Each structure stands twice: as structure tokens, then as C-alpha cells.
Automatic annotation (TrEMBL):
Keywords noted in UniProt: Disulfide bond, Glycoprotein, Kelch repeat, Laminin EGF-like domain, Membrane, Repeat, Signal, Transmembrane, Transmembrane helix
Protein name: Laminin EGF-like domain-containing protein
Domain Laminin EGF-like as annotated: residue spans: 702-747
Membrane topology, record value: Single-pass membrane protein
Keyword Membrane belongs to the record: yes
Membrane-spanning intervals of the chain: 904-923
Organism: Pocillopora damicornis (Cauliflower coral)
Record-linked Gene3D superfamilies: Kelch-type beta propeller (2.120.10.80), Laminin (2.10.25.10)
Presence of keyword Membrane: yes
Locations listed in the record: Membrane
């Protein structure tokens, strides 16, 4: 290993650390051991404005440039390589990096082998466990940061790198030299790391060097013989001849006897593969198989296909070939004779699919779903007869089961059911998602049943069945790798379970791998997690699922039950397939992104392929497209080297370099290439570009675009050919064109309004309201203007030099105010103004050469307002917009006239007294009316009182000659049978016979009494004197 690890860090745009700070704007320092960066405030990262987007490890002074869309770092040593590798360790990749991706090449160009791709997709794994070290054996590493439509300011990543030390011993591919000694990789030993051995220490057993596995003593199990209770465990064996295989994903595997056969797959460095290999299980050894047919034909390179074993034969179907074509071929390999046979069906031709699954049920191979460019995600169940070799198909009602891509399917031998889990569902052209659903399919009955949703979506995972357990391993979710690496579905108990207390290998997170079962052990091979794997991961269930086992190996997640009726989908989308996806039929960038094409089309410049947004994860499941262009985000020419006209813009494209023409003026050509030389093609006029003229990391100091020579190293002296600018990169005023890289500038043909024009010769109209290619016409509505009296109007005069307005005076005896000022202050904006008055024929200048802001008044007694033709005209000129733009606010309003105070107060008091008099009259009338009403009420009351019967009676309170009291009044009812008697009662008093203060001594009481018919009225009391003044019949109430 190197003496120390340098750190390459990216924050906002880029900075790199290799013992010294390269971007001074970051204001960071290194700690003494050169492993940590201390920035302002003590943080680990400091956001800087921008730095050079491509540089080498030995660079010190990096010029500041605008923010690039891509950045590239080339790490290499200036000393002879001597097979010294570059060691890279991915420490951090921030979740805030959005769609940004980090491409790492083993070499000096984008055509070097691609060894890793990092993005947000793998951030979950990098947080849990450290990433594997990357080794660039060429001695150089090119790191490219690519992004698509990201508006992110806080993207940070950290890569530590070092160089392998010089070593007198050749350590090969299985070790690194440190202090003159080879530190061997796991599974290798000897002085130069050339002898295979076990990758772990066999604690309670011995190492079988031939198989490179531990032979455990009795009572022990596990990869290193350290497990005593026969529980579940993981192992990471290193196979013999493993280096013969590339790291792959989306390959296919099948088991025949003692061999695991593997075909095809996708490699980061080679793309689709056509390699056929088999793994000897007993000997732990790989071998490459050379198979062909009589015509020397074999399946083409592909990935996303299926492979099943039947009667010593392998049946290969479908897959994605080069340039994105999806195959419908059926190939059959005789594993004994190693001969391929292409099946040509004359009855039914199957639909080509990729990302499907194939399962053998008795004498049939059942192919479920998959992706087809014409149909989207197919809802077909395609069945291949393994005996008659005939295809047939049927459709699945998408209301029962949503078809998927990248799902898993596995056969349960005991029940004959096919269990399907997960996958990637496309619901329509703008709605798609990963699935977490689980079904099982009864092929004989043709029925589907759904299990309870586990809630962890994933696709491109694997599934196997060991005894009664379906084991789901790996996969990717919507935005990252799934956090639950392994899930177990107990088919007997119908429960989901997760393993506990199990040490998971640091490379367990992956997707695109394949898994098979041999002797109750799951073999998972390949997969992708930033880099492609070419090794096995093994998982042994042990006795965890055995009946009567007391081992606590799992924890239950849910208690799902089988639903006999399919669940109704909760998706908000209504269609399960994209509608009329035609993107794959377009073969050029211009055709892919043209105006009448589908907005969902994207162009991949890296692979020259047009794809739909909805199929992006299907078409490029491993993020293998580095340069993606979307309509409205740039031009096709922006991604092509030949269309770039400056060295700086050329360095923005990681696969391009600049070949200087040798004139010393900055002219040259942008070409595909790497650090050492261009990628020369046939007929290339720059095929003789010498190494001295080739620029990949830096640009020539003089960059005058062919229009000047430099003085003082990099300063263009006098720009010729009607050009201007620090690098003669634009045309001078009055000329147009693109002078970059030797381009020409032509004369602008404009009217007297302006002399300036754009790069296409269209005149830049400097008078607000002027239009036309030559500024010789007025914009509709600007030829006379509109009235805005009494209001304010803001005019954006940014970029204009003149602005005119006029107002016709109409009202008599009203003065007018004119105010002109900058809206919001507009610091730095300047202008002058002339104000004139007159009729249509003559004008009289009233104010000239005044500066803005400007205010004036026109008094009606000084001018003949109201007569025809009297106008106010304003001419604003010499406008300087300033840095923040220029907005003029113009206000024209009538001024209020002087008020006559005497007339005002006379009118006011006259009105006030009139109102007061009216109020007095109303008040008097009201009082008279109220008095009249009250008098009338009193007269009516007196008349009523006079008509009532009345009498007087004298009461002797102290006469005691009667034995019984008598009434003071008797009122006989009309029928003569009852009377109302009124008596006087004396109320109780004190012991002295006095009445208490505040109380009455007497009260009247009435009682209703009856009497005989002869008695019609009570006799008058004898002891009283009664004088009746009036007598009338009474009525009993």
C-alpha cells in the first residue's frame, strides 16, 4: 500500500487534495498527517464557487472557471509506472448528489476499462459497510462526475487514493506491495501471492488447498469452522480460476449435475457478454467452455435472458443484445456434446422479452412477463414444451396481476406452485415503480393468488427455495439498494421472516445477480453494487427451518395469509403499459429530440441510443449511460466533440481532447481522445496530431481563437478580423458571427436606430418599441403610445439606449406633473431626458439634457391646455442599464387646483344652518304629535272609569257589638246561586296592638260563597251605614 492516502474531495463543484490545496477559494488546510481537511468553521467540507473541471494529481494552480456540467480527474504518477496500481477507496457519496454519477476508469480515457459506477443508488450500502477497494492496475485512474438536470449545490463525495509502492517482487493481480513485501488478497499466499489457499482462517478445521475451503471438525460448521449449533451462516469462497471471469450482472445460471452453468451477462468494461462458463462445485473451480454448432454459430452477447436445465440440456431464451435489441431466440445447449442449436419455430414465434423469468414445471418451461420495446412490460405467460419444443402463450388480466420486469420466480416442488416476488412495474408513460407484492401461480389451473404485501419493493433480485423456505436476496428499490439483504418466506407457516444474529458479508448488497440451490446451500453469483462482482456468495440455512429446531434464527415481520381473491390495485395509474413508446425507433440524437417527437424521449450519447424516460431503468439498469440529453436541456451538438469550438468547452466533455493547430493563436479542433492521444478514425484530418499539440488536462496558454497573437504568455494583444473580447471570442460592435476557433464576423445591416446585432445578424433594437431584423418597424401599439394619465407605468429598458413617450393634454385649467425615476433605485443605471411641448408641427424644448430622476410641472395658466395638438413629448437617451437591469417609472398626473376658503366656509355654514333648522322643525312636529296621542289616551281612560259601578261604605274598626263579622260588599253572580264577598281583615300587630313600621294594619279579602235560591243577595249589615250612589247588575267573573 502507498505511504499515505491522499483525498480527492468534491464539494459543490470540485476540489482535490494531494498534499496541498488546489483551490484557494476553499480556504481549507490539511492536518499534519494529510488525511483530514480542516475548513472554515471546523467542518469537513467547504462549499467553493468553482474550480478547474479536469486536472491531474500533480497540478497545483487551478484556474477558476464557471460551473461545469461534468468534471473529470486524472490520477497518475509522473514516474514510470512499473506496474504500480492506483488504489481507490470510496469514503463518501452524499445523498444530495441527486442524479450525479461517478464513473471510474482503469486508464487515462473513457475508452479504458470501466471498473465502477457510484451514485445515490448505493449510498445505503456505503453507510452500512465500507466499500471494497478499487485497484486501477494500469497505474492511472480517470474519474468522471456526470449529472443530468440537477440543481444541487451541496453534492459532496470523498475518495481516498494512493499509489502502490515500488516493489522488487511482482505481486500480480492478487496482492499489493508494501515496504517491499506483497500483501496478498484473501485466498492467496506465497511470496508473490501466486499460491491459492483458503480465504479465511480455519479455526476448528483444516484448509483444503485444492478446493480452498475449510474442512471443519465434527460439531463445527461455518466458513471458518466457528459455528457450533449448525445455524445459518454466510461464506465468501474464492474459486480457482476465478480471474478468468469478468464481473457480470443480469446473467443466467442453471445447475446440471455437479456443475453450475453461467451464460452471458453485462460487464461494465465490455458491455453484453457471450461467455459460457461452468463452475465445478466439488473442486471449486471455474472453466470457460467453448461451444458451437456445426455452422459455428452460438448465441450472441446478451443480458437479461433466462437459462433453465432439462435432461442435460440448457434452454436459453430472450435477453437484451447490443444496441438495445431484445431477442426472441430460443437456443438449446447439449451439455454433453457442448453443441448449441437454434430453435426455429414455424407454428408460434415467441415475443422477445428481457428481464423475465423461466421456470421448469414438469415438461414445460413457463416464461413470465419481461420487457419488450414494442409492448412495454409484457403481460404474456409464454410456455415452451420441453418435449415437443413448441411455444404457446396466454395473457394475464392486469387487474389480477401487474406484469413486471426484473422479478423473481421459483418453483415449490411440493405443491407445484410458482412463487413470484417483486419486480419493476410500468403503469403508463409517466407512472412506474418497484413492486413489493408476492403471488403464486398454479400453472395447471391457470390461477393466481396473492400473499400479503411485505412492503419492501425491489427488483433485479434473486429467489430460491430451500425445503419450505423461499429466500429472497438482494435487489434494488426505487432509489437505492434494499436495506434488507435477505428475507425468508416460510411456505408452511405463510409468514415472512428476517434472519437475526447473522454476520452479513460487506458485499452482500447487490442487484442483478443470479442464485441457485445445491445441497440446500444458496449460491449467489455476480451482481452490481458500484462495481461488478465475479465471485460467489453462499448462504446455508443450517437447521434453522428444520421441524423441532430450537434455534432462534429469524424474527417474524408479519403474519400474512393467502388471499383467495386478488387484491384491487391501489395504484393511481390506469394503464399498465406505456402508451405508444416509439423512442426506440429513433436512431439519431436530432430525431430523438425533435419537436414533434415524444417529450419522454432521452438520448444516450454514450451508447447512441434513444430511450423513453419510463424505460430508463430497464434499458440502462446499471447506469451505464454516462451522457444523457433531454429535450430543452441542451443541443445534441453539446455532447459531440466535433461541434465544440474552444479548448475549455472541449475539456467539459470527458471523452474529448483538444488538438492545437500549432499557430500559437488558440485555434485547433476538439476530438475524441484520452490523456495520451486522440482516438483516431479513418479519414480524420487531424490523424497526424502530434503529442506536443494534444491537450487533455490543460489548454494552451494562448487562447485567441485564431484572431491574435499573445503577449505576456496568455493576453491577446490586438483582436483582428472585427473581433473583440479578452480572447477575441466575440464580434466587435456592428458585426455578427461566431469568431470562435477562426470564425468570421460580418457587418451588421441595421437602421439608424442601432448599429448592433446578434450572432445571426438580427439587429439589436435599442429603442423601446422598435422591431424587425433591421429595427425599421414599430411594435403594434408603440407607434402612438397609450394614455396613462393618473397612473404609474414601469418600463423595462434593460439593454435599450433610447426610449420615447408622449401625452396629449385634454383638460382645461388643470396643471400636469411629469415624474421620471428609476424603479427601486436601480443603482448604477443612468440616463438623460429631453422634455418638449408643442403641436404636431412645432416643438419647443422646455427642458434639455436633464438627468434621471427628473420631475417638472406644466401650469394651465401658462399654456393653452385643451387645444388640439398640444402634447408633451419625452426623449430619454444614453441609457446605461447597470448590473441589475433598468426599470423606468413614468408618472403623468393632473395637479390639484387652489381652494377658495371664503366660498368653502360660506357654503359649509349655509348647509350646516339649513340642516339645523330642518332638525328643529322635525323635533317640534314630533312633540306635538306625541302630546296629541297622550291626551287622547287620557280621555278614553276617564270615559271607561266613569262607566264602571261604584259605592261607598264606612267601616267601624272598634265596634264589638256583633258576634260575627260581616262583609263590606257582596256581588251576586247573575244566576243568583253564588256571590263574591269582600271583607276587611285586621292584620296581626305587636303585643301592644300597634302595627309594625312598614306594614299595613288592614287588608281586603274576597271569597266565593253559595246560598239557597231564596237568598239572592246578602243582607246589608245593620251596624254599618251604607250609602249607595249607583246600583247596577253585577256579573260573576
Amino acid at each position: 500500500m502507498g505511504k499515505r492516502m491522499n483525498a480527492l474531495r468534491y464539494c459543490f463543484v470540485i476540489y482535490i487534495l494531494s498534499g496541498s490545496i488546489l483551490c484557494e477559494l476553499s480556504k481549507c488546510t490539511l492536518n499534519p498527517d494529510h488525511t483530514e481537511e480542516i475548513c472554515n468553521g471546523g467542518g469537513s467540507f467547504y462549499r467553493i464557487e468553482s474550480c478547474r473541471e479536469r486536472h491531474g494529481e500533480s497540478d497545483v494552480n487551478i484556474p477558476v472557471t464557471p460551473k461545469p456540467s461534468r468534471s473529470a480527474w486524472l490520477i497518475e504518477t509522473d514516474e514510470p509506472k512499473n506496474n504500480r496500481s492506483v488504489i481507490l477507496n470510496i469514503i463518501k457519496f452524499s445523498r444530495l448528489c441527486g442524479n450525479m454519477k461517478l464513473y471510474i476508469y482503469d486508464g487515462t480515457s473513457v475508452r479504458s476499462p470501466l471498473i465502477a459506477i457510484y451514485s445515490n443508488l448505493i449510498k445505503a450500502r456505503t453507510r452500512e459497510k465500507p466499500s471494497p477497494l478499487l485497484q486501477a492496475t494500469s497505474g492511472s485512474a480517470l474519474i468522471v462526475l456526470s449529472r443530468r438536470n440537477d440543481k444541487i449545490d451541496d453534492c459532496c463525495f470523498v475518495i481516498k487514493y494512493s499509489f502502490e509502492e515500488k516493489c522488487p517482487i511482482e505481486c500480480g493481480r492478487h496482492g499489493l506491495c508494501s515496504k517491499g513485501i506483497c500483501n496478498c488478497s484473501a485466498g492467496w499466499t506465497s511470496r508473490n501471492c501466486s499460491l491459492p489457499t483458503c480465504p479465511v482462517v480455519c479455526n476448528n478445521g483444516s484448509c483444503d488447498v485444492k478446493t480452498r475451503k475449510c474442512n471443519c471438525a465434527s460439531g463445527y460448521s461455518g466458513e471458518s469452522c466457528n459455528i457450533t449449533d449448525n445455524r445459518n451462516f454466510w461464506s465468501s469462497p474464492v474459486a480457482n480460476n476465478q480471474d478468468a471471469l469478468d464481473g457480470v450482472s443480469s446473467h443466467a445460471m442453471a445447475v446440471v449435475g455437479n456443475y453450475i452453468w453461467v451464460f452471458g451477462g453485462f460487464s461494465l468494461s465490455k458491455g453484453p457478454l457471450d461467455v459460457l462458463a461452468r463452475y465445478n462445485i466439488r473442486e471449486n473451480r471455474w472453466e470457460i467452455i467453448q461451444a458451437s454448432n456445426e455452422k459455428h454459430q452460438r448465441p450472441s452477447a446478451r443480458y437479461g435472458h433466462s437459462l433453465v436445465a432439462y435432461d442435460n440440456h440448457l434452454i436459453l431464451f430472450g435477453g437484451t443484445c447490443k444496441k438495445g435489441a431484445v431477442s426472441n431466440e430460443t437456443w438449446i445447449l447439449n451439455t454433453t456434446s457442448r453443441q448449441w442449436t437454434l430453435l426455429r419455430s414455424s407454428v408460434y414465434k415467441p415475443v422477445g422479452v428481457s428481464g423475465h423469468t423461466a421456470t421448469v414445471v414438469e415438461n414445460e418451461m413457463i416464461v413470465l412477463f419481461g420487457y419488450n420495446p414494442e409492448q412495454g412490460v409484457s403481460n404474456l405467460i409464454q410456455v415452451f414444451g420441453l418435449v415437443d419444443r413448441v411455444w404457446r402463450s396466454s395473457k394475464v388480466d392486469s387487474s389480477i396481476v401487474r406484469p413486471t420486469y426484473g422479478h423473481s420466480s421459483v418453483l415449490h416442488p411440493g405443491t407445484g406452485r410458482i412463487y413470484v416476488h417483486g419486480g419493476y412495474r410500468m403503469l403508463n408513460s409517466s407512472c412506474y415503480r418497484a413492486s413489493s407484492e408476492t403471488f403464486y401461480y398454479e400453472s395447471k389451473a391457470g390461477k393466481w393468488y396473492q400473499l400479503r404485501n411485505i412492503g419492501i419493493p425491489r427488483f433485479l433480485h434473486s429467489a430460491v427455495i430451500i425445503d419450505s423456505a423461499m429466500i429472497i436476496f438482494g435487489g434494488r428499490g426505487e432509489k437505492e439498494l434494499v436495506s434488507r439483504h435477505l428475507m425468508v418466506f416460510d411456505i408452511n407457516e405463510m409468514k415472512w421472516k428476517f434472519p437475526i444474529n447473522t454476520t452479513v458479508p460487506k458485499t452482500a448488497s447487490r442487484y442483478g445477480h443470479s442464485s441457485v440451490v445445491v445441497d440446500s446451500i444458496m449460491y449467489a453469483f455476480g451482481g452490481f453494487a458500484g462495481l461488478m462482482f465475479n465471485s460467489f456468495l453462499q448462504y446455508s440455512q443450517g437447521d434453522c427451518m428444520s421441524q423441532g429446531s430450537s434455534l432462534n434464527c429469524f424474527e417474524a415481520f408479519l403474519t400474512p395469509s393467502v388471499l383467495l381473491k386478488p387484491l384491487v390495485s391501489s395504484d393511481s395509474c390506469t394503464s399498465h403499459n406505456p402508451s405508444s413508446d416509439q423512442c426506440h425507433l429513433r436512431h439519431t440524437c436530432a430525431d430523438c429530440l425533435r419537436g414533434d417527437s415524444d417529450d419522454s424521449c432521452l438520448w444516450c450519447e454514450t451508447l447512441n441510443q434513444c430511450v423513453s424516460k419510463v424505460t430508463l431503468r430497464v434499458t440502462f439498469p446499471y447506469q451505464q449511460c454516462m451522457q444523457i440529453l433531454e429535450r430543452g436541456t441542451g443541443a445534441c451538438s453539446d455532447l459531440q466533440c466535433a461541434n465544440v469550438k474552444t479548448c475549455r468547452d472541449c475539456s467539459m466533455l470527458p471523452g474529448c481532447g483538444w488538438c492545437d493547430d500549432g499557430s500559437g493563436t488558440g485555434s485547433g479542433r476538439c476530438m475524441p481522445g484520452g490523456k495520451n492521444e486522440p482516438f483516431l478514425g479513418s479519414g480524420d484530418s487531424y490523424a497526424d496530431c502530434s503529442k506536443s499539440r494534444w491537450n487533455f488536462i490543460n489548454c494552451p496558454a494562448c487562447q485567441c481563437n485564431g484572431h491574435s497573437k499573445c503577449v505576456e504568455g496568455n493576453r491577446c494583444e490586438n483582436c483582428e478580423d472585427n473581433t473583440a473580447g479578452a480572447h477575441c471570442e466575440r464580434c466587435a460592435d456592428g458585426y455578427y458571427g461566431d469568431p470562435r476557433n477562426g470564425g468570421k464576423c460580418a457587418d451588421c445591416r441595421c437602421s439608424s436606430q442601432t448599429k448592433l446585432c446578434d450572432s445571426e445578424g438580427k439587429c439589436r433594437c435599442l429603442a423601446l418599441g422598435a422591431t424587425g431584423d433591421r429595427c425599421d418597424r414599430c411594435v403594434p401599439g408603440y407607434n402612438r403610445g397609450d394614455t396613462f394619465l393618473g397612473s404609474k407605468k414601469d418600463f423595462n429598458v434593460t439593454g435599450f439606449k433610447t426610449f420615447n413617450f408622449e401625452y396629449t393634454l385634454k383638460e382645461e385649467k388643470r396643471s400636469v406633473s411629469v415624474k421620471i425615476k428609476w424603479k427601486g433605485g436601480n443603482k448604477g443605471s443612468k440616463a438623460r431626458v429631453n422634455i418638449t411641448m408643442g403641436d404636431n408641427n412645432e416643438e419647443e424644448i422646455k427642458y434639455g439634457h436633464e438627468k434621471v430622476p427628473f420631475t417638472t410641472e406644466f401650469r394651465y395658466n401658462e399654456y393653452e391646455f385643451g387645444s388640439d395638438g398640444i402634447t408633451i413629448r419625452g426623449y430619454i437617451y444614453d441609457i446605461e442599464s447597470g448590473d441589475e437591469g433598468a426599470f423606468l417609472r413614468i408618472t403623468i398626473e393632473n395637479l390639484a387646483e387652489t381652494i377658495d376658503l371664503l366660498e368653502f366656509f360660506l357654503t359649509f355654514f349655509g348647509c350646516f344652518l339649513s340642516l339645523l333648522l330642518m332638525a328643529g322643525i322635525v323635533w317640534k312636529v314630533r312633540n306635538r304629535y306625541i302630546s296629541y296621542i297622550l291626551n287622547r289616551q287620557r280621555r278614553e281612560e276617564r270615559q271607561k272609569m266613569a262607566s264602571r259601578p261604584f259605592a261607598k261604605v264606612s267601616v267601624f274598626l272598634h265596634a264589638h257589638n256583633k258576634s260575627t263579622p260581616g262583609p263590606v260588599a257582596v256581588e251576586t253572580c247573575e244566576n243568583g246561586r253564588a256571590s263574591v264577598l269582600t271583607v276587611v281583615m285586621r292584620l296581626p300587630g305587636t303585643e301592644d296592638g300597634l302595627t309594625p313600621i312598614g306594614q299595613s294594619a288592614l287588608c281586603f279579602a274576597s271569597v266565593l260563597g253559595t246560598h239557597t235560591e231564596q237568598t239572592t243577595s246578602a243582607p246589608a249589615p245593620k251596624a254599618t251605614r251604607i250609602r249607595t250612589t249607583k246600583r247596577c247588575a253585577s256579573t260573576c267573573v
